[in-house]
Amino acid sequence: MKGVSINLEGKKAIVFGIANDKSIAWHIAKRLNDAGCRIAAGYQERVEQLFLPLMKELNNPVYEKCDVVDDASMDAFFRKVQEEFGEVDFLVHSIAFAKREHLHGQFMNVDKRGYEVSHQVSSYSLIELTRRAAPMLKSNGSIIAMTYLGSEKAVPGYNIMGVAKAALEACVRYLAVDLGEKQIRVNAISAGPIATLAASGIANFADMLLNYVAKSPLKRNITADEVADCALFLCSDLSKAITGQVIYVDAGYSSMGI
Ligand SMILES: NC(=O)c1ccc[n+]([C@@H]2O[C@H](COP(=O)([O-])OP(=O)(O)OC[C@H]3O[C@@H](n4cnc5c(N)ncnc54)[C@H](O)[C@@H]3O)[C@@H](O)[C@H]2O)c1
Q1: Residues recognised as catalytic
Q2: Which fold has domain 12-252?
């Protein structure tokens, strides 16, 4: 970034959600790393092949398999981070999952298990990871979750994920209250559509990209690097009075009425 320099030397971040070099979490991890922050990354076994080479690009990272539906793997991950880092400054939650069959067609066809799993992975996990990280989190710390406009407006095809994101955004506000006294901030970034692995499961995704170009005030799509810029801001003292918020990095699309 030209003109503004944010120095995170000596800081440490836990980052969840790196699957490959397109992942929003990867762009955030790289940005924090380049600002001097050390990264502890939790990753799913299924993404290992593309995940491991990326770790070579970071400065002395810590990494461990961690699936948020598996208590034992979360225990092992947080034990490792505790041993290696002791204290942490930031937690980045960039995780979501819904069954592919529930990301198209009529929303009312979602079944109970599909509802549960989307919420367990995409919103409950923020509570679980925050609770586990809390004893290690330093005052002035920052927690960031990733969300999307489908939480507050109906976006055909986004379906059950929109409901999970609504829950996630509510979790952000309640966690901000829990941790506020310790001067730890909790916010969500609501990003415009970006072509990633997770996005490939959403019906109408190509139309979403075209819609942003046609209708957003900036007449374009956004990049994962622009989301990472916002995450860097939210980890810095420049945002130290901002908590419990959903911040839009969406070329202004969410501000439009038509
Ligand atoms: N790509 C977009 O258009 C967009 C827009 C707004 C918000 N988001 C949000 O950004 C976040 C990151 O998604 P992305 O687009 O970078 O896609 P991605 O596929 O690169 O990342 C999703 C990540 O979730 C992880 N994950 C899924 N289930 C998990 C589990 N059980 N345990 C641990 N990790 C698990 C995957 O391993 C993967 O790393 C998600 O919350 C997504 O909803 C994405």
Answers
A1: 148, 158
A2: Rossmann fold (3.40.50)
